[in-house]
Amino acid sequence: MLLLAFYSRAQQQPNIIFILADDLGYSELGCYGNSFNETPALDRLAREGMRFTSFYAAAPVCSPYRAALMTGQYPARIGITDYLRPRAARHLDTSYVTLAELLKAQGYRTGIVGKWHLSGYIKEGAPEETLPDQHGFDEVLVSENRGIGEGTYFYPYDFNREIRKQLPGPQEFITDRQNEEALGFIRRNGKQPFFLFLSHYAVHTTVHGKPGLVRHFQQKKNAGSSPPTQQNPGNDPYNKWPAGSKASGNNPHLAAQLKTIDDGVAAIVSLLKELGLDQNTLLIFTSDNGGETTITTNAPLRGGKSTLYEGGVREPFIAWWPGNIKANAVCKQPLANYDIYPTLMALTGGAGNHQPLDGISFVPLFGNPQAALPPRNFYWHYPLDQPHFLGGRSAGSIRSGAWKLISFFDDGHKELYNLDEDPGEQTDLSAKYPSRVAGLDTALRNWQKNVQASH
Question: Where are the annotated segments for Disordered (predicted)?
Fold first, then answer.
């Protein structure tokens, strides 16, 4: 009955809400084992929907993830393999049919609320830019037009100085504003199929939460702490770098920001039910890369943002669609974010002959998390001129079944792990299995040639 209902409902062109947190690690949600942060709405989505435990980001940093999401292609094929700097000349070319354009061609109203980061910015000195309105988004709401590094979370916003305050009260918090803009988009467009990309700026560092929520988490047992920095000697709670913002674990600011994201999820679900749209809306929640290990841990996974260890690229991923996705289900099959494009294409009947797709549809998993998908390898390509400031190194990687090889471009050494037996990547097996290393390395090199990966 579930599959019959699923395919019947799918023919009605489901609304699609894709909620993306920034730099949220694998183990930050309650439903992924976190006992400090508070995420009741997301935990409920997991109980009512499907939680994925091996869902990968196409890269360990922001821009290449978003390029893969928008195109269904490996970042190496696109040529965006690192985060784009504010003055970058490179940007996502308008020749691609983006996910928004794909859905718009199927009659969807499209909107993005928040972070884009697939272009440099003219206002920062870039020679040109392509912002979301040039990539198929009908509505572009509180999105950046300047660099977002160390961006402000309280109004006025450094990343877009043209945004005007709308929320009541003396202070406006960008995550609250994004949540409200998302609700407004749903209300305006609920009578037609819509695609909403709610792309949060949180919890990108420097993390900075609303003072009341921060105090709540600071008072919890085992809360992390740190003094205010020299840039905020008076510990002004509305200025960047207040007390607790650099706590290395159980960070109260990260927890406060995540709670505001979670509150927005609760409000969105409530509105969908109020409007009678919940049974025909697919809601996905995930993150673009691992958490920063300076302020959190991605345990039991190793590493974090900027590394090709699992903590840098394995993400929380929840899919919710009442009556159409198996409830309280866990899917262990490996998937990647370039699979989202062909999945939504399959759900909506979009045509796929405009550009080669590197992902596959995982629609069959919605009804059965053990459904058979075509066997394949997963690849990462992350070349760097110098190490990332968070410790990431220039490297490539391949996962084939349980086996994962990381090939470091800077010194040529290789590491081999069996993820079924060692998901935390604690035991390098490269010396024990040299023939397996050689085979995986050959496959990785052949893939690099096939996609014309640049070093």
Answer: 219-251
- What would the 3-class secondary structure string for 211-224 be? HHHHHHHHCCCCCC
- pLDDT value of residue 1: 39
Two tokens at 428?
Answer: 């390098």
pLDDT of residue 3: 44
Classify the phi-psi angles of 142: left when phi > 0, otherwise alpha if psi is within -120 to 50, otherwise beta. Answer: left
Alpha helices in 62-208 (DSSP H): 62-71, 75-78, 99-104, 174-189
How much is the pLDDT for 6? Answer: 45
**188 C-beta neighbours (distance < 10 Å), count:** 13
* Beta sheet of 378-382, edge-to-edge order: 378-382, 395-400, 403-408, 414-418
Please give the pLDDT value at position 389: 87
Q: Are 384 and 376 in contact (CB under 8 A)?
A: no
Kind of pairing between the strands at 139-141 and 335-336: unpaired
Which of 3.10.150.10, 3.40.50.620, 3.40.50.1980, 3.30.1120.10 would CATH assign to domain 394-455?
3.30.1120.10
Neighbouring C-beta atoms of residue 215, cutoff 10 Å: 14
CA distances from 328 to 6, 45, 52, 56, 403 (A): 16, 9, 11, 21, 28
- Measured in degrees and rounded to the nearest 5, phi and psi for residue 273 equal -70, -40
> Each residue of 47-56: pLDDT tens digit?
999 999 999 9
User: What does the radius of gyration of the chain's CA atoms come to, in whole angstroms?
Assistant: 21
pLDDT recorded at residue 351: 73
Q: How much is the pTM?
A: 0.96
Picking from 372, 367, 369, 437, the residue whose alpha carbon sits closest to that of residue 403 is 437
Closest of 345, 333, 283, 371 to residue 3, by C-alpha:
371
Q: Which CATH number fits domain 2-374: 3.40.720.10, 3.40.50.2300, 1.10.3720.10, 1.20.1250.20?
A: 3.40.720.10
Question: Which segments in the chain show pLDDT lower than 70?
Answer: 1-11, 352
Q: Can you count the helices (H) and strands (E) in the chain?
A: 12, 13
Catalytically active residues, by annotation:
62, 117
**Distance between CA 36 and CA 43 in Å, rounded?**
13
